[in-house]
Amino acid sequence: MGADAPVAAVERTAIKKVSVRLVPFVALMFFVNYLDRTAVSFAEPNGMGADLALTAAQFGFASGIFFLGYIVLEVPSNMALHRFGARRWLARIMVTWGIVSLLFTWVDSSGQLYTLRFLLGVAEAGFFPGAILFLSQWVPSRHRTKILGLFYLAQPLTTVLGAPLAGWLIGHHGLFGLEGWRLMFLFVSIPAILLGVIAWFYLIDKPADAKWLTPDERDWLTDALATENARKVGHDDTRDQHAKGDLRTAFGSGRVWVLALVYFGFVYGLYALAFFLPTIINGFQDQYDTTFSVMDKAWITAIPYLPAAVVLFFWTRHATRHGTRTWHVAGPAVVGGVSIPLALSMGSPAATIAVITVTACSIFAALPVFWSVPSRFLTGAAAAAGIALINTAGNIAGFAAGYITGWLKDWTGAYYVPLYLVGFFMLMSAVLMIWLSARNRTADPASGTDQEPMEALR
């Protein structure tokens, strides 16, 4: 590296360029991805449920069966990404899911809805863990929480922007001879196909191939990542030998499985809200004898997610500046687990949405910090498989949240019991995160003095 380019300055400019050139584009892909998979939640209370004669349990099953399709190909998809490169594989995923999503425009039975939701999961399989893996391979671990936090902003902003967009599209009922909810599916699907084509030419698999980096920046990123990966591979851990870069290692790592359970709890809460919040808001009309237009319901749905995006940004910024610590994940899990069961006991729509906002802030604060953990002790094929395995647990939670929430609502007649279950799973995540950190600190007392206690998870 040239003497005229001090290491600190090169590091700063390299990370800034990655943040500007890659993260916004991958976040846009995530925005469209999350909008396509949750569009069904906007469609159900705005005509689809009535047109297809869906019960709450049937809608829950349709919401959740997406994740069964996703689970089938999750790990194989991420291994294919590791082999063929993110540029080709993420582009392929986007185009195929956009095509399947487009077919929802013409669905006319619950059976067709189930089939397309399953196929949408198959088509999307591997996108989210692939995006996490891709971004993790561009920056050293000390910058990863910040980068993943910027990427994760796309998820709450999808609802902030997507709910009003969905409401606006649904409000154009009759355009092209389509019901409003069908029109929404048509127009939210096309961007996925277009972005997939653009991604083929725009994305770059590794820093060494990035022409928009200077030679010094390329050398620094390549050397920093190679040194970090070598340290992981060389680290001797006789308990689960997780540092070896093979598929067997990821599936044999107890830490990976515990992290999968932690993620399960968060994602159960995330999708219980994502799929059923519009339906809960629609129910306010009978519960409180009021009336909302389609756009009113869309804006109310968006309310919890704007504060969540703000909290996510500052929470991940704090974790980056002061070191990622166990309470950055466990703390929000406790707040979310306590708040969500209270939501329907507030006595007014405003108070209910306020409590749900607290829960949404908790979930989104923790998730990007959580995803900085697996890549601290996994590399190569083990990282691809381990991240996919953890995300598979999240997709099981996505199926369970949709189906169980709907089934419990039909059985009990209200959403009280389903939301208490959400609270239980989030508190479970907090307990497991604390236990995992304490277990590894006990096993390696020296890690307790590390400036970044999450390093104990190595």
Automatic annotation (TrEMBL):
Which membrane topology describes this protein? Multi-pass membrane protein
Entry's localization field: Cell membrane
Q: Which residues cross the membrane?
A: 18-35, 55-77, 89-107, 113-135, 147-171, 183-203, 256-278, 298-315, 327-344, 350-371, 383-404, 416-436
UniProt cross-references to Gene3D superfamilies, sorted A to Z: MFS general substrate transporter like domains
Q: Which InterPro entries match?
A: MFS (IPR011701), MFS_dom (IPR020846), MFS_trans_sf (IPR036259)
Keywords from the UniProt entry: Membrane, Transmembrane, Transmembrane helix, Transport
GO molecular function per UniProt: transmembrane transporter activity
Please give the Pfam families that the UniProt record associates with this protein: MFS_1 (PF07690)
Entry's Gene Ontology cellular component terms: plasma membrane
* Major facilitator superfamily (MFS) profile domain location: 22-441
Q: According to its UniProt entry, what is the function of this protein?
A: Component of the tartrate utilization system and may allow entry of tartrate and tartrate dehydrogenase.
Q: What is the protein named?
A: Putative tartrate transporter
Name the species this protein comes from.
Streptomyces griseoviridis
Organism lineage string? Bacteria, Bacillati, Actinomycetota, Actinomycetes, Kitasatosporales
